[in-house]
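quick one before i forget lol
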Amino acid sequence: DQNILREIKSSFRQTMNADLSDGMRRNGLIYRMNFGVPSPRIKLIAERFEQDADLATYLWNEDVRESKMLATYLYPADKFTEEEAMKWCSDLKYTEIADQLCKNLLVRQPYATHLSKKLIDKDSNILIYTGYRLMIQLLIDSQDIQIDTDFINKSRFNAVNGVSYVNNVMLNLMQRLVESGQLSLSDIEGWRDSDNHNVKNIYQLLSMY
């Protein structure tokens, strides 16, 4: 509906923040259009519209920061298949959008735990990040994730090969797991004397908890 789309774009323009948009662009976050609308405002805008899968898909496919964020609110959770979820994850370029996707839509799916494990086994840094971020969101929402040898081995591999933002989200997740008692330092004892700086550093930081 063109009227709805016009209303959505009008809402973006009314709350745009040019300084925020410019700052993102300087930091390498490049969209076709970025209004710089703060994410809490996107949630308020979403409350004005009915959920609609077609509308959400259209918004997601736009290379517009705010449209992608809004799409994560407007897609009906009970219609979002795992196949569609993986497609959206494959479209991700930036962690901010991954955070919104995990928080607003992916965590609400019955396949969320399974999807998170699939993602951390990918060879794309943004997909691996999304997998760990989804696990964090599952913990925040008091849902269980299974910590086993496979998870630990994959995480060690990802720590060796990952960039800083991947290792940071992994550390965040593992801190939460240690604090909740779901992970102990003995589970990752081999990380302590690793030749890889990233792996060893994560162990040392976790040992402070």
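fyi The radius of gyration is 19 Å.
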